[in-house]
Amino acid sequence: MSTLETNLIQPSTGTALTVGASGDTITVPSGATFNVAGTLQSGGSAITQGITEADFFVCNADQSISNNTRTLVSGNWQRSAVSDFSKIGTGMTESSGIFTFPSTGIYLVEAQSDVYADSGALNFANVAIDVTSNNSSYNERTNSWNSNPASSTYSSTYKKCFVDVTDTSNVKIKIFTYGSGASYKLRGNSDKAETCAIFIRLGDT
After folding, report:
1. At residue 149, does pLDDT exceed 80?
2. What is the CA angle 188-151-141, rounded to 5?
3. Would you say 90 and 103 are in contact if contact means Cβ atoms under 8 Å apart?
4. 177 beta partners
5. How far apart (Å, rounded) are the C-alpha atoms in residues 102 and 124?
6. Chain centroid to CA 178
7. To the nearest whole percent, how much of the chain has pLDDT over 70?
8. Given 3-state DSSP classes, what are the helix, strand and coil percentages for the chain, each rounded to the nearest 5?
9. Contact 113, 159 (CB under 8 A)
10. Structural contact between residues 53 and 201, judged by C-beta atoms closer than 8 angstroms
11. Which of 52, 113, 138, 201 could lock 105 by a disulfide, CB 3.0 to 4.6 Å apart?
């Protein structure tokens, strides 16, 4: 095996340079550093590393929910303001309970509802994540139920799902709650996560 020693390799014509041939393996040996100052691509698309989007929203005040009424969680959402949180990337956008994604990709979406039954015996309550792919019709992607059989009691419900965001103008989510037996409150707090939602982009769509 011969050794080529040089400080610069450039194409003799044009701007494209090929290293190796089909079927070859190009090895960067242990202890060496492969430093890419420009854009590293795969199949013509830029390769991104790690989590590029992560966001955390909380409800900053209680929301009253009527008995036997599926209700959109809205009006009180804000990005978490706790001192040890900072969003990664552009972050989500929320308006009237509708969450819009900042970029395409596969997202993990998590939702939690904290429930306080203050006016009677609440049989159950749930939290549900609804998704639209056309910015119009929403379908329930997942939900979770809890049991809250007595008045003046607290409970929590949690659910998560994957959302394939192929188009940021059309793929959006809403978070709903529904309970039976009595009206109740979704608990909100601007200083800590009670009713809340988490969004993490895991990779490309």
Report:
1. no
2. 50
3. yes
4. 71, 127
5. 34
6. 22
7. 96
8. 0, 45, 55
9. no
10. yes
11. 201
pLDDT (mean) for 172-177: 98
How high is the pLDDT of residue 93?
Answer: 98
Domain ranges of the chain: 54-203
Residue 105 is which amino acid? Answer: G
- Contact between 171 and 131 (Cβ < 8 Å): yes
Residue found by looking up tokens 């009237």 in the block: 96
Q: Please give the Cα distance from 156 to 125 (Å, whole number).
A: 9
**In terms of pLDDT, which residue wins out, 117 or 198?**
198
- 3-state SS, residue 199: strand
Return the closest-CA partner of residue 60 out of 82, 83, 77, 85: 77
Structure tokens at 186: 């979704």
> Spelled out in words, what is the top-level CATH class assigned to the domain 54-203?
mainly beta
- CB-CB contact of 155 with 147 (8 Å): yes
Q: Which of 139, 141, 145 is nearest to 178 (CA)?
A: 145
DSSP assignment of 166-187 equals S-TTT-EEEEEEEEESS-EEE-
